[in-house]
Amino acid sequence: MVDITEHFLELVRLAATDLPPDVEISLTQALEREKTGSAARGALETILKNVEIARRDSTPICQDTGTPIFYVYYPEGWSTRRLRAQIESAVAKATQRTYLRPNSVDPLSGKNSGDNLGGNYFPTIHFEEVEGDTLTVDLMLKGGGCENVGAQYSLPNTALGAGRDLTGVRKVVLDAVHKAQGKGCAPGILGIAIGGDRGSSYLASKEVLFGKIAEDNSDPQLAELETRLTEEANQLGIGPMGFGGQTTVLGTKITSLNRLPASYFVSVSYMCWAYRRRRMIFKDGEVQYE
Ligand code: SF4
Hints:
The strands form 2 sheets. A 5-stranded mixed sheet has the order 2-1-3-8-9. A 4-stranded mixed sheet has the order 4-7-5-6, sandwiched between helices. By secondary structure, it is α+β, with helices and mostly antiparallel strands. The protein has 2 domains: 108 residues, Dihydrodipicolinate Reductase, domain 2, CATH 3.30.360; 127 residues, no CATH class. Iron/sulfur cluster binds next to helix 5.
């Protein structure tokens, strides 16, 4: 099998240092909504300046370079064992070159591995075999601060008056945004999964964050809920970095999974403004990045 470690390394560099255009545009639009001289506008100006410097100098967009989460869609015949080895090697090289901060610590001793590797879950790599001859790899770097404010609700939730319907979903998601204020580095993006079990629901709430901010949801009910939640979250007045203002979230992405009749989970993955996700497409020896 061909060695594409260097392509994986470039994927990691891009994800860590070059914010995707749709996120930067969304942050710029948020800045234009804030009053001149306000703390919110100042926070967004600093964020955007930082994004520019990171891109120019190939330095991390944020000091927390997050958990690397890979999704590998591979054609028949590729070895997942070798792909894993190449990805891990690229992650270790990216750490040496300081695109990534050493972020992987032993859960019990707290000892840092120094190279962003550790067991089977750091980095996290999901594999799925696909038709055709194109290898597609998505990478997200998920910051720790925003991960800490993720939440899962089991409906009905009597304390919040949230039943097993989309009104109940709205109530618990807004509760999660409210609780995240001052943490998680707003403006964020909400990844929401309705249904599934506890594990699949949380996983899907992260997977939905691989989509572009402005991409329309193919389900009209969920599309409407996405728009409404973004508007309502922005009425909370939390604002960029919690300084107050118009933009608490840049967008909302929702997916749904079949569930057991006995369960109704709503999982919220909060992604900070450092919404680092990149894609690599490898076909016929040629590589492209998005
Ligand atoms: S939550 Fe995001 S922006 Fe905030 S410190 Fe972590 S990675 Fe950086």
